[in-house]
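Researcher: Here's the sequence for the chain we discussed earlier.
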Amino acid sequence: MYTKIMFNPSKRWWDLLSVSLFLAALITVTYRLADTRWTDNLEIVIGLALIGAIIGLALGYSRFSPQTAGLFGFLFTLFFITWQLGELTPSNYIWLERLWLLGDRMWQNLVLFLRNQPLNDSILFLANMALLFWLVGISTGYQLTRYGKPWQGLVVLGIALVVIDLYHPPLAQSGVATAIFAVLALLLFSRMNYLKNARQWEEEEVGVDTDTGFNLMRSSLIILVLLVIFAWNAPRIVRAVVPNSPERQQMIQSLQSLRERFQNVTNPLRGSVAVLDEYYADEYALGTGSQLTDATVFTVQASITQRIGVPYYWRIRSYDYYDNGRWESTVTNQQSLRVGSPPLDYPQYSRRFNVRFDFRPVRNLSMVYVPGLPVGLNRNVLLVYDGSEPGKVEDVITVLADPDIPPGSTYQVTSSIASPTIAALREAGQDYPQWVVDRYLQLPDDLPQSIRDLAAEITAGLETPYDKAAAITQWLRDNIAYSATIPNPPTGRDPVEWVLFEHKQAFCNYYASAEVLMLRSLGIPSRWVIGYAQGFLDEEEDFYWVRDLDRHAWPEVFFPGIGWIEFEPTAFQSPIERPSGAGTEDRTPFPQPNPNQPQLLDEFEEATRFDENQASGPVNLQTTPLVSATLIILGLLIAGIVIFLVAANGRRRRWFPQQSFPAFLETSLRKRGWRIPRWLEQWSYYTQLAPVQRAFYSIHWLCHLFKIPITPAQTPAEQIQTLINHLPESETSALQLLQEYQKIAYSPYPADTAVAQQSARLIWKLAFQNRGKMILAKLGGKPLESNA
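Model: Thanks. This is the structure I predict for it:
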């Protein structure tokens, strides 16, 4: 005999108005955080906090015990936090690789933080913000509907808002977010106080007017708005009457030590000005620098990946006029280049070849990334050009998109890329076109004589423009230390002269400016260029991954008959090593095409054909909170189904007697015409393999995880040999696994499943042990030093 305990909703504290006030307060704080633009992808915090709050509200209202609700909350936390942070890694990796890359980034940054060294990656800050606001959302939602006590979460949100306003003053000066949060929090307090009194009145059978709740909320709202308006303006009145008040100074001093301690972890975060468009104006100040992040800006695939001589430089704009730390572009000639137009031709230049590039930006492009001289694009653009006469394009300053290219879409450009040898550059001579001499030898009238003298000293005894440019490049690399940021140059002094002779630290803007000014003082035409360095080449996928930290400025020198040639004086970048061209064995071979990219088509019109479907390609979902929240909701449903099926594992075979669950799910989605995610296809394929095949297939994951270069074109024996070459201690187990796999794949003999699975497990164990030894050796070595 037992008594069944029934679920009683009256014991819960569900109230639509209270829930709405709580969600509005949460969204206010998270949007305030995202508006700082301290780093890319802060928008994910909004979606995570909102969905965490919804889950917390549901768990609080449910019949689950606190222990069961806590278990579900823990599982949801693991799933959503890991998923959203994993989405920030390159999409061309499988999820196991993404998790490994994410963990490696987190570990490296944690080590730097514990060593009290500046971080160059914002992932640690982003992960902490995501986890903090997720926990606030889910715990406060649970406390609200289960106990009617959301106060702890509101206090945390209030503290977070104060900290954000302290470190991001531009929006804090208006105080809008703080005022809205204060009104919402106090209204929620008033509402919860009324609900508790109403419940007590009901238990004591005290009669209350039905409009009491509405009248109370209305009165509270009026009073709160008046109080907030007064509090909002009170500090301004105090500051106007008592300038530099001691109270303000005392607060700043008390927070200074805390700020200095956590400055390292916020080192990779940016200021309050966000660049939503990739656009550079006619004028560009050298500035004091900033800490860049590893956020992806674009990816690009080239028809020729092994460029002989120098890396690719992704130019955005060049500048010709300098005056006291500021560059200006004075070129105003414009000409449209439409899709299907005849290709541009540059017959006056030699030692060049055409390369096609496929770009996929993650920012809105008003200006197009174009290396070398553009021959044609599959987008309508406007060229800002220079030349000996109007209408004759001999140089392209920048390429303007018409219309803008949205993030997530792709565009193709064919460019004429220079690839001369050192001998060819030395032989180019000094017979410069008049339009080059008129524009690219400009120097300010008050240019310090010390810069001219330094250029003459460095190049003494050298004859050719190339040798002089190479000597100045090397001098800057050897004598000016790299620093991502510098102090404001002294007023009244030329910033470049101050860097060269006093500060002796600089970033790329100053390296490039110094070289251009010194070369022009020697009569060598040169210009200042802004854009991005080559970035990281993913050799497996054959594309360049260009990040925010690859933003760069460099000098270009004009050589008659060849065109503009890049030089690299910035010490932080790898030096350029061109072939000498002195002998037949050192002649520049024709670059080999990239086999993973379609080659240039014979008909130019077809190569520049515009694909409307491509133009409306997918937008980066990380920048769209509403879409991100929608995906999270879908992920929640899928996670719930998976958890339910795992719990009911004993009955799974009765539901899906012919198929595994992932195979059943893949089949169902295909029948409905839905797009199948890559991870589901791989999971489904894996579950349909024989046990021995699964064991061998797991080695593919291991190789991808530890970046062991195996390819589908290799035979199983070649793949295993590659594994052994990189992990010699696994030779015995690897050969045993290969033997069992070959039995089941190529012979009628049965394979030993236990041996294959044991061999695979031992290989994984050895790989992780090897990785652990490498990490421990690294941690036990010399502490890392900052580049700054």
